[in-house]
Amino acid sequence: MATSCPKPRKSMPQTQRMTSTASKDKLIAELQAQLQEVESAAAAAAAKAEAAKAAQQVLELRLKASSAASSNDGAPPDGSVTCPSPPCSLIQDMGLMDDCNQYKWILHLVRAFMNHVDLPRTAMFRNADPVKLAHIYTITQERIPFMCRFVADWATREIVKQALKNFCSYDVTVAGAELEDNEEQPAAEEEEQETSDSEGSNLGEGENINGESNNAKSGEESGGESDADS
Description:
Layout: H1 14-73, H2 90-93, H3 100-116, H4 130-143, H5 154-202, H6 214-229
Helix pairs in contact: 3-4, 3-5
């Protein structure tokens, strides 16, 4: 039985094989580049998610620490203490009855801030420059964190009112004392002059300041001279 011999396969031309190989290499390179981009994007997304998770953990820790601090010292959060109605004494309204030193120190600092912004001592609060008042409130919150707890800066506002009122009372008292001194001095001089005039008028005619008669004294002097002559 005759067997048929397989036909020889036609070989691909050299140029076509080189072109096919280059196309495959290019495709592989493109796929590798796309894979790298996907991996980079995934890594960036993972890093972003990790950062967000870390930030959330930090916020949670801060919140727990803040809650613990509030529960430990009983300090209210910022902007939570309203002005009492009706108001009592300022130190009591601010909750500093047990810490007079801190209360006095706050008064001292707020008055220093008033001088810093050059708020006139003679100004009434209702006529005070609102820009300077706002500057005082801002400085007070920055320098005294305790004052941040009061709604709308009512405690600082009351301290400024109190200081301006005390300044005006002091100036009025000083001016009144100076006026009284100026009025008393001429009166004393006038009284002294009247006393001197009265004493001068009480001296009788022919009497010296010692109450002796000038004629008698003259007679005595004349008698003495006569005795001397004899």
